[in-house]
Amino acid sequence: MKQVYLDNAATTPVRLEVEVAMRPYFCEKYGNPSGVYQMSSENRGMIENVREQIAKTLNASAEEIYFTSGGTESDNWAIKAAAQMLKEKGRHIITSKIEHHAILNSCAYLEKQGFEVTYLDVDEWGSIRLDILEKAIRKDTILISVMYANNEVGTIQKIAQIGKIAEKNDILFHTDAVQAYGQLLIDVKKENIDLLSASAHKFNGPKGVGFLYIRKKIPLPEYIHGGKQERNHRAGTENVPGIAGMGKAAEIAFTTREYREKEIQQLRDYLIRRLQRGIPYCRLNGSLTNRLPGNCNISFQFIEGNELLLLLDEKNICASAASACSTGDTSPSHVLTAMGIPEKLARGTLRLTIGYQNTQEEIDYTVQCIKEAVEKLRENAEDYRRYKETFPCNIM
């Protein structure tokens, strides 16, 4: 079996059409968009066309889209600049315990600057309870940041309802949509989203480019000082090839979304069924129904997830135990911990995320390899033998 790539939540392969769209801007159309000559003018025109294109996918306007280096920069800009802008109004921020580290670490930074942050609990499926969110709101609350869909367990939050709560209380609402953009339909107006982060490499575009949506009425301060790029908000020469590639990737993502969603979801459900039926003592993490199309996050008791990953790598299967940003961290996932998953079970977690390029043949091969690997890891586990005799069940 050739390499089986099932870590699309970490990054996605660049589509051939995207590579083709980028190619001219490396060696032929290499002009700086800020120049006055024709090559520069054409590049600047391409950038504005992509800005308009991305805006349409969100029901936004072009002047509300700002290009960045990716999701982490967009998250940092949104959180830190919003706090700076509104610090005279209040210093309280609300987020959740299962956010990406770009959000959690930005909030931790702001706490050192005198801001207070409430980290909302989630239920066993990874969903935020709206009543608890409302109770957390204070007179000095200035920002709510809740991710659109979780990068580990795939749970999709009730973004429209959260946006409505934020609007009712005159609070800025940011959502990290890095995992959702390109997979789900997003309408920033209907969902009352003020700020939204996205990254091209999560929807088959290049790495190193993304965007931040900033609602027109919000005077968010500039993030990088220097020249006048991005309407004086984000200085630095634009990543011209990257923006061209992101535009093409967005175009493909939204024109093929319905078809891809159906195909990928069918493969995901097939994968989950085969794992649950074929391997005892496993637990699917995240919402059973309200989850990203390609996400399968599953925990196997009596094993270590990192050991499982090594055995799968020997079989040429690429997967992960948690977020790619947590690689090397041996502690249990902060997402699973917040969901109340016991530590021993959480440590045996495998995240498999399916992309458009995956096939049923690859899924069958992967399931067989996982089954063999789990059995091998459990062979010398005394606690497994005892538990199997006492609870001969198939699902934890």
CATH architectural group of the largest domain = 3-Layer(aba) Sandwich
- Mean pLDDT over all positions: 95
Q: How many strand elements?
A: 12
User: Mind telling me the C-alpha Rg?
Assistant: 22 Å
End-to-end gap: 31 Å
> How are the strands ordered across the major sheet?
2-8-7-6-5-3-4
Tally of individual domains: 2
Structural class: alpha/beta
Strand-residue proportion: 5-15%
Task: List the secondary-structure elements in sequence, H or E.
Answer: EHHHEHEHEHEHEEEHHHEEHEHHEHH
Low-confidence stretches: none
- The CATH topology of the largest domain turns out to be Aspartate Aminotransferase, domain 2
Please tally the helical runs, counting DSSP H or I stretches of 4 or more residues: 15
Task: Describe the fold and architecture.
The structure is a single chain. The chain is of the alpha/beta class and 396 residues long. The protein folds into two domains: 4-11 and 257-390, Aspartate Aminotransferase, domain 1 (Alpha-Beta Complex), CATH 3.90.1150; 16-255, Type I PLP-dependent aspartate aminotransferase-like (Major domain) (Aspartate Aminotransferase, domain 2). The chain has 15 helices and twelve strands. The protein is globular. It comes from Anaerobutyricum hallii. Its cofactor is pyridoxal 5'-phosphate. This is cysteine desulfurase.
Question: Which characteristics define this entry?
Answer:
Aspartate Aminotransferase, domain 1; Aspartate Aminotransferase, domain 2; 7-stranded mixed sheet; 2 domains; 3-stranded antiparallel sheet; 12 strands; 396 residues; alpha/beta; 42% helix
